[in-house]
Amino acid sequence: xLASLAFPPATxxxxxxxxxxxxTGQSFTGRNFGAPKSVFGETVFSTSITSYTxxxxxxxxxxxxxxxxxxxxxNYGVPVNSAPYDTQDVGxxxxxxxxxxxxxxVSDLAEKFSHYKAIESLASWCTRHNVPGITGVDTRAVTxxxxxxxxxxxxxAVGDDASAPRPESHxxxxxxxxxLVEQVSTRMPYTLNPQGxxxxxxxxxxxxxxxxxxxxxxxxxxxxxxxNFDFNAVxxxxxxxxxxxxxxxxxxxxxxxxxxxxxIQEWDKPVFGLCMGHQIIGLAAGLDAYxxxxxxxxxxxxxxxxxxxxxxxxxxxxxxxxxxQYALKLEDPFPAGWEPFFIxxxxxxxxxxxxxxxxGKRVWGVQFHPxxxxxxxxxxxxxxxxxxxxxxVKAAQAASKPLLDxxxxxxxxxxxxxxxx
Length: 421
What we know:
This protein is an alpha/beta fold. The chain has two domains: 2-177, Carbamoyl-phosphate synthase small subunit, N-terminal domain (Glucose Oxidase, domain 1), CATH 3.50.30; 181-392, Rossmann fold, CATH 3.40.50.880. The protein is 22% helix and 29% strand. Helix 7 crosses helix 8 (276-285). The termini are far apart. It comes from Botryobasidium botryosum (strain FD-172 SS1). One of its GO terms (biological process) is glutamine metabolic process.
């Protein structure tokens, strides 16, 4: 604590040159911080004014060079990123164990930081995780370009590479051509809060820690599974299925979508998906997904509820946290048994779908992040709605089981038959 109050300097070498090259031809010069290396990636921007540590550790930013529109970044440093495994936490403070984005672009890197939980600067954190950054860039100008021409492939050139010729068009790496989910999903199943009163399976497409945190803090036992795990083989062991956020193109995960389609068709327990999970549910329902021009990334996205469900009331606008490049297409008519749940107030993109009341299913998907971290908490109670629904279905099935068992164990009804028959 004393070290952070003393405003320790950022451990960056401001003499190393750096250049951000965009595939569309523009270049922005600045100085390097963090790792002194060059990288390729997909250049995207976030309008978030806080929580840079949470954004940088969000697996949905895998393969991306993250541009912060807020001018000053790093002023409150970086905290210790470890926490207990219990009913309140899931092993980390931030959204994953390390930095997930490929590179960082900021206008003004804070050379000093001050926060009672901070232990290091943004620059030293990036150095430790081998992630390069560039400061001294007009990030508002970069943002306006990306808004006009859309998300653009880029290269962060550092050191000697900064004075080298810009890359040829064919040299730029497109992360969306790869299955990024495969890179960030857990390799082996694991369970959090095993003493929870309802068992929820989580398909991990690149989950943020706060999603898991939100579930365990509501008393659930959470078993995290790889993205392509055949949930249908073990579904009877669980009271609900949850699909997480993740990076890249949802069509890279059609294997998961087909598994989820079978689950929805044959299973009557609650299913909830966020971001990538919402898109997977949409593909399973028969909707199509498309690549947006520049996506929605930030903590200020307004969405309009088109239907009521639990704590969500139709006709109300909710402010949400988002991070996605792809969205579901709005189709008319919607697939049978499904209806739109939310729509974006800015660009009219689909922000949520749900099963209809007459479908007999309990399925919800939302494009935004109710758990935030960071961002507004307008929709945080959707987690309570979901866990409550899991408990209700579990209790109802437990109550009906004795009657079902009795029906199978009772002697068969005897029908009188004539002796001459």
